Each structure stands twice: as structure tokens, then as C-alpha cells.
Amino acid sequence: MKKAKDSIPYKVLSSGNNVIMFQTRKPQKVNIQDIIWDELIKLPMTAANKTDAIAQLIQQLADNDQIAQAKKDEIMELFLKKEKLSPTGVGQGTAFPHIILSGFWGLVSCMGICPSGVSFSNDANRNIKIIFLTISSPIHRTEYLNFLAQVAGKMIHKKTRNKLLSSKNPREVLSTLQLD
């Protein structure tokens, strides 16, 4: 890990030249439909618990060539480890399991709707019905955070959640997620 004194901005600032501002690349706004498309929506899910829900969504990614089939078990372990440390159920029926994966390139996500609900915390409440699973490379962290914030912002609205829960097919899901 670089220390602040080793960073390029620190070296430039300490060079004695009058530096007013650094410009970095602007975070890219991520279009949800560039990340999630019809085949990456599992509707309905039949998960009995959080582990099963995560496994189904990882399989959805693998079946659609977004992750390697051979890496599913390794990825599953990373998700379960992260869930053990910090459950990703955020309330209001929504969970966002997500990891940053070294050696991975890009940003992938899928979602599932589980009408019967699953628990994403240590309690017995089976209230999580909408699940967005996301994997990012370290280099795509900005886009990853932008994507999570964008989707989370949509999930705040009860009307959006209700429309997702009543969706009959992936097209309806995507249409609901794209509404601004």
C-alpha cells in the first residue's frame, strides 16, 4: 500500500511549484441496463436462506458468462465471509451482497426477487425479497460504488419496491429500475 508521501499528488505538491488543483477522471455514471440485463434477473427465486440466495445469483452470473464456472465456489466463500462480518440486508426488503475481487476485471451484477423472502441477518425475519449481487474489480471501484448508490437510491422508494415485487418478467424489472 502506498503511503501519502509516496503518492504522485504529494510529490507534486511538495515540489515547491504552485499547484492549484488536481484533476482526476470524473466518476462515470453507470447505466443499470449496462450492468444488469434480462438474463441476469432471477425471477422468481426459490431460496430457502441467504446462502441459497447468494448461490443462486452466483450461478446466474456463471450461466451467463459473467464469471467463470470454475470460480463459483471461491466467489461463494468470499461472499459468505463478507456476510458473516457485515450482513448486507439494508432493510425495506432489500439486500446488496457485494465484493471487490482481486484478479477480476470489470463490474458485474445480477438481481433476484424472492417472493417468500429470506433472512440476511442473524434474526429469523425472512423479510429480504429483492437482492442485488455485485462483483467488481479493484480498478472499477468508482463505477461499483456509483452503481450501488444508484440502485440503493431507487430502492428507497416503496412504489419502486412494490413494482419490482409485482413484476412478471425481467423486462418489467428493468423498466422499473430505469425510471427516474
Outline: globular
Order of helices and strands: HHEHHEEEEEHHH
- The count of β-strands is 6
How confident is the prediction overall: mean pLDDT? 83
Query: How would you name the CATH homologous superfamily?
Result: Mannitol-specific EII, Chain A
- Beta-strand content estimate: 15-25%
* Helix content class: 25-40%
Question: Mind summarizing the main beta sheet?
Answer: 6 strands, mixed
So how many helices?
7
Query: Separation of termini?
Result: 39 Å
In total, how many domains does the architecture comprise?
1
CATH architecture: 3-Layer(aba) Sandwich
CATH class: Alpha Beta
In a few lines, what is going on in this structure?
The chain is an alpha/beta fold. Helices cover 39% and strands 17% of the residues.
List keywords for this structure.
180 residues, six-stranded mixed sheet, 7 helices
